[in-house]
Write a structure and sequence with these properties.
The chain has 2 helices and 5 strands. By secondary structure, the chain is α+β, with helices and mostly antiparallel strands.
């Protein structure tokens, strides 16, 4: 099981109801398309632990889009 980064619900990683999205080479699964859309608007808000010091908070070139 994967955890939706927006609402923290467990989702089936193989068949997530809200589909998947990639950001900075990492795949994320979502419980609803609304959670996926919220993530896509501000992915850095939900993956802060992966950000490194001195690195730009959000670079649109790093967003890989839907899967």
């Amino acid at each position: 099981m994967a955890v939706d980064p927006v609402c923290q619900q467990e989702v089936d990683e193989e068949n997530p109801p809200g589909r998947k999205a990639r950001y900075r080479g990492q795949s994320y699964s979502f419980c609803t398309v609304a959670c996926r859309a919220q993530f896509q608007r501000q992915p850095q808000k939900y993956v802060q632990s992966q950000e490194t010091a001195g690195e730009a908070a959000y670079d649109p070139r790093m967003f890989m889009g839907d899967m």
